[in-house]
Amino acid sequence: MNKVELNPDSGPAAKFGVFLRGLREERGWTQEDLAVAIGYSPTHVSAVETGRRPPTPRLARELDKAFGLDRVFVRKALDVKDSALLAGFPEYVAQESKAVELRLFDLGIVPGLLQTADYAGAIAAGAVLRNSITRAQADERVAYLARRQASLRREVPPLIHAVLDESCIRRPVGGPAVMAAQFDELVAFAGLPHTVFQVAPYAIGEQRAFDLPVNIITLADRSLMSYAESAQQGHLERDSGAVPPLLTAYYQLQALALSQADSVALIRQLRKELP
Question: CA-to-CA distance for 17 and 94, rounded, in angstroms?
Fold first, then answer.
């Protein structure tokens, strides 16, 4: 069986999984051995080790018992629970970093991969003011985004299609200076040789294909995955039958959206109108 490599910096769940795998292998245990010791299935152990499933308090207690540790896994599980990252999101990012094509659609705010540091910081600061995350969690989000953006600046970058609902560029975030820099970033993004940038205008109305953000990934073997979020959970869809209809809808959205030239012209016009 191929061993799934995991970057501990990709999120708290990944860090927990790497730590668990390291201790298990030090003991010379297989995933099946550990599963028997803690009363879980080998599949569950594998999912926790690869960061695809967050550790529960009960699982953490059973791991501490199995390894003879004093609340080490319990404390690490709390770090996962207190993370500012949605459950399921690090799993998506792990696939995103291997993609040959990315298709992004967002509403309300500029997609993370296209955000400037100041824009991302303003969004995180807003969440702190609403008391939905802590200041430390806000810093974690911004740092995580920077690492995610850096991972896509590889020698052969993926082709990135980005369609932004008009609400993304109409909503002021962080003040005029932050928005001016963000608009400049979007124009620069549109000028890259591996990007396609479009704005879906309000005028398309009910013909807009999506009412929620969606990301569609194409991997090197041409397999497809999609990612969507609720308020509490991110979900990576691998079902080969479920993703193609989303891809078709994305093509339909692109056909209705402004051309790249018109989209850039709109961004530049909004940039001029800033106070």
Answer: 14
Structure tokens at 14: 């990944």
Please tell me the distance from the alpha carbon of residue 84 to that of residue 244, in angstroms, as a whole number.
31
Q: Which residue has the tokens 């205008």?
A: 201
Q: What is the mean pLDDT of residues 240-265?
A: 95
* Number of domains making up the chain: 2
- Report yes or no: 90 and 10 within 8 Å, Cβ to Cβ: yes
Does one domain contain both 41 and 58?
Answer: yes
Read off φ and ψ for residue 82, nearest 5 degrees. Answer: -85, 0
Q: Is the dihedral of CA 265, 266, 271, 274 positive or negative?
A: positive
The pLDDT value given to residue 8 = 66
Give which of 272, 95, 53, 259 is closest to 176, Cα–Cα. Answer: 272
By DSSP bridging, strand 224-229 and strand 214-218 are: antiparallel
Q: How many residues does the chain have?
A: 275
The residue range of the domain holding 256 is: 89-114+155-273
pLDDT band at 47 (very low <50, low <70, confident <90, very high): confident
Mean pLDDT of 252-268: 98
CB atoms within 10 A of CB 35: 17
What mean pLDDT is predicted for residues 100-129? 96
Q: How many CB atoms lie within 10 A of CB 29?
A: 17
Based on the number of CB atoms within 10 Å of its own CB, is 148 exposed (0-12), middle (13-18) or buried (19 or more)? Answer: middle
Asked whether 242 and 97 are in contact (CB, 8 A), the reply is no
Domain annotation covers residue 130:
no
Radius of gyration of the chain measured on its C-alpha atoms: 21
Distance, CA of 131 to CA of 168 (rounded, Å): 23
